[in-house]
Design brief:
The complex is a heterodimer of chains A (about 550) and B (about 170).
Chain A: H1 2-13, H2 16-34, H3 40-51, H4 56-81, H5 90-101, H6 106-139, H7 144-162, H8 166-181, E1 183-184, E2 191-192, H9 198-201, H10 206-222, H11 226-229, H12 245-254, H13 256-271, H14 277-291, H15 304-327, H16 333-344, H17 353-356, H18 358-389, H19 394-413, H20 416-434, H21 439-462, H22 468-471, H23 473-494, H24 501-518, H25 523-544
Antiparallel strand pairs in A: 1-2
Chain B: H1 6-24, H2 40-61, H3 78-85, H4 87-101, H5 103-124, H6 130-152, H7 160-163
Helix pairs in contact in B: 1-2, 4-5, 5-6
The chains are: A mainly alpha (about 550), B mainly alpha (about 170).
Chain lengths: ~550, ~170
């Protein structure tokens, strides 16, 4: 079945035009990812207007290519200039830059980065193809109550991971939900918050809102400082190198365990809504350091320190795509934009998406796979383009892209109001960024607002009783993990300092095991027992230690939007 | 500690915003059919937003405002200092508004080229041969993008009154 779908998807994608578009996408993504201040999500969101006229599979393949290119582009800037191109490649600079500068081996550092990215991408593509249909099968069990709670969980965890202050994150998420209520409501077609305006009655175009909130506001932030806006990237480093592929492959192959472990960290971080490459690359680096026999060498320019973050950050999007394709819930801002692209083509991802639209679903999987190969091929060539692009001043890039935003947003619906939407939401995004409100929860709120409301309406159509939200196993499961993920930032801050943090983990384990037992079957009660046993073990450990606060604080992960 | 700090003001603005929208939610017509009324979900969202804004207000009352994302860049005093600090984003807003306001007259090609050209000048300066370089950049990039959408993707971009006086 999988083979048949893969072949059908390959036939769908195997046109010269699609391959050309994918190559352009990967190349564009590599460059966008390499420019500090330009995020991958911004590159993907700006690609969206170009794809609306294409067939769904072609448009999505192009966007996936930009995504894959962007994931690998960050390493060029990180290794050669010491400035990470994207938050996903922050950890790459820890060893990549010293290897390039102090050890004088920039070609090897780049090669290791490229091949680690390749391996991470391939592992995650394989997992995407195999895990997404399985997760979708679980998703088929979801009823409207479960779906509603899943959306609430996605928003809560994104808010808790996206910034320092969770209340601000939640406010941003709720504002996103509110934005989506403007215009005609989808269930019965009544006007809401139109304030007597016919244009507002149509609602804000979702893509214009996304481009405004994310790309427009980011560009304004990039040029905020007049001196920095007139500076170019090459002033901070050297970029005359040749990638040493052969030596790099040998180095990566010798450390295959780091590749596999980091890729798995990446995939599972990606599956979790809200946690993106910015977290995964640091986690993978940290794990590689802990597992190493020579942790003191990390930071001096060793291969392990490049392999771990680069394999994990490329694997993240495969994981995020698993959740998006299987459940229709975007894992991060980038997949939220991908979801927007699917909606433009009248495709609504849900648990039935992979079985209803196997060719389209598998063409996305396959595009991820093929784009990873293209990334390796294009990296050497794009290095030269990167040299040219880094000579361009930030204000030139920002001005031109602002102009592109206007044209691109207008082109989506041929409506001038959409360009106004772009600018208003650009301003809103800029102000929110300035005051420390994370944008990721807001974007997820905009994307998931309709899904939440429609499922709430469906739930109420079945019964007006509210108890299924708390008695249905999946709904209860999502509610419990939403509550604990809401408390997680406080737990992280106060861990090792306050007594209540000692019971947080066991309480979470005990609580989560309840809905897992309620689900029945064989596997889930077994999982519940394992979780319960772990919780009990933690309690026993803490009791043995006399419930004293342990000062053992783990790693600290800088949480930034990707 | 300053009692009425920036975060407090933002929280109050959010509460006022909730009030306005809650008031506006009474204008939503309630049909005789359907179980979930069209105003129910927005009101739930607004109630949660109001609750969170109150929480944010109480959080902000007792502490210093959180840092902003401009890295603590020095800022001059008064309105002139504020304008100097935010000069570049203000130019971006103002020129984009001008671009949109003149769109029906200039169209997307001329308007877009002019927008990018003027913005490049305002952000990058006008000295030496910069205007020539900026002009070329604006013409090539926006012209290229306009051509791609018009001829490549068959998108009808606003021609404006100059290109299409009888349109």
């Amino acid at each position: 079945m999988i083979i048949e779908n893969v072949i059908a998807a390959f036939v769908e994608l195997a046109t010269i035009k699609t391959f050309m578009l994918m190559m352009v996408g990967v190349a564009g993504g590599l460059i966008a990812g390499a420019i500090p201040g330009f995020t991958i999500a911004m590159a993907v969101v700006l690609t969206l207007p170009f794809t609306f006229g294409m067939p769904a599979s072609q448009g999505l393949a192009t966007m996936v290519s930009v995504l894959v290119g962007g994931l690998s582009g960050g390493l060029m800037a990180g290794i050669l200039t010491g400035i990470p191109g994207t938050p996903s490649s922050v950890a790459t600079t820890f060893d990549g830059f010293p290897m390039a500068r102090k050890k004088g081996e920039p070609g090897l550092a780049l090669g290791i980065g490229v091949w680690s990215s390749f391996c991470g991408g391939i592992i995650s593509a394989i997992l995407l193809m195999t895990l997404a249909p399985q997760l979708a099968r679980i998703g088929l069990e979801f009823n409207p109550w479960d779906y509603f709670m899943l959306v609430m969980f996605a928003l809560t965890i994104t808010a808790s991971l996206a910034g320092k202050n969770m209340v601000k994150g939640l406010i941003a998420g709720i504002l996103g939900l509110l934005i989506r209520t403007v215009g005609e409501d989808e269930a019965v077609g009544m006007a809401r918050f139109d304030f007597g305006s016919d244009t507002i009655l149509q609602g804000f175009d979702f893509i214009a809102v996304l481009i405004g909130l994310f790309a427009f506001s980011q560009l304004l932030s990039d040029v905020r400082d007049p001196a920095a806006a007139r500076r170019s990237l090459t002033e901070t480093g050297t970029v005359h190198v040749r990638i040493e592929h052969r030596r790099a492959i040998a180095e990566v192959a010798k450390r295959w365990t780091i590749v596999v472990r980091s890729s798995l960290i990446g995939v599972f971080t990606g599956i979790l809504p809200g946690a993106g490459g910015s977290i995964a690359n640091i986690l993978a680096y940290d794990q590689a350091k802990k597992a190493s026999k020579h942790p003191e060498k990390f930071g001096t320019g060793i291969a392990d320190g490049i392999i771990a973050p680069e394999s994990s950050n490329n694997a993240v999007e495969g994981g995020a795509l698993i959740t998006m394709m299987a459940l229709g819930i975007p894992g991060d801002v980038t997949t939220a934009v991908m979801l927007g692209a699917l909606l433009i083509h009248d495709v609504v991802p849900s648990p039935t998406f992979i079985s209803d639209e196997p060719v389209l679903a598998y063409s996305i999987f396959l595009a991820f796979f093929v784009a990873t190969f293209m990334m390796v091929g294009l990296q050497s060539f794009m290095l030269r383009v990167f040299v040219l692009v880094t000579r361009v001043r930030m204000y030139v890039l920002a001005s031109v892209i602002l102009g592109f935003c206007g044209i691109g947003v207008y082109a989506i619906n041929n409506v001038e109001f959409d360009v106004w939407t772009l600018v208003w939401f650009g301003i809103l995004g800029f102000i929110m960024r300035h005051f420390g409100f994370p944008l990721a929860p807001m974007i997820l709120g905009v994307v998931l607002g309709n899904i939440a409301e429609l499922n709430l309406a469906r739930a109420f159509a079945i019964t007006s009783d509210l108890s299924p939200f708390f008695t249905r196993p999946w709904s209860l499961f999502f509610l419990i993990i939403a509550v604990f993920s809401a408390g997680f930032p406080m737990y992280q801050v106060q861990r090792g300092r306050k007594k209540w943090t000692l019971v947080f983990l066991p309480a979470a384990c005990f609580a989560v095991s309840v809905p897992l037992y309620m689900m029945g079957g064989i596997v889930r009660p077994v999982v519940a027992t394992v979780v319960l046993a772990y919780g009990a073990f933690t309690v026993w450990q803490r009791a043995r230690g006399g419930w004293r606060i342990e000062a053992a604080l783990g790693h600290t992960v800088p949480l930034k939007e990707d | 500690m300053q009692r009425l700090n920036r975060d407090v003001v933002i929280a109050i603005v959010l509460l006022v915003f909730c009030g306005v929208f809650f008031w506006a939610s009474f204008d939503i017509r309630q049909p005789d059919y359907g179980v979930l009324m069209p105003s129910t979900w927005p009101r739930v969202v607004l109630a949660v937003l109001a609750f969170l804004s109150m929480l944010y207000l109480f959080q902000s009352l007792g502490r210093e405002p959180e840092g902003t994302d401009d890295g603590g860049a020095p800022r001059g005093a008064g309105l002139r200092g504020w304008i100097a600090h935010w000069r570049n984003p203000l130019w971006c807003f103002a020129l984009f508004f001008a671009y949109l306001a003149t769109l029906p007259v200039l169209g997307m090609l001329i308007g877009g080229v002019l927008f990018v050209f003027v913005l490049l000048g305002m952000l990058g300066g006008w000295e030496g041969r910069k205007p020539l370089f900026h002009g070329a950049v604006a013409l090539l990039t926006i012209g290229g993008m306009w051509s791609l959408f018009t001829f490549g993707l068959d998108v009808m971009l606003p021609p404006g009154m100059i290109f299409n006086p009888f349109g």
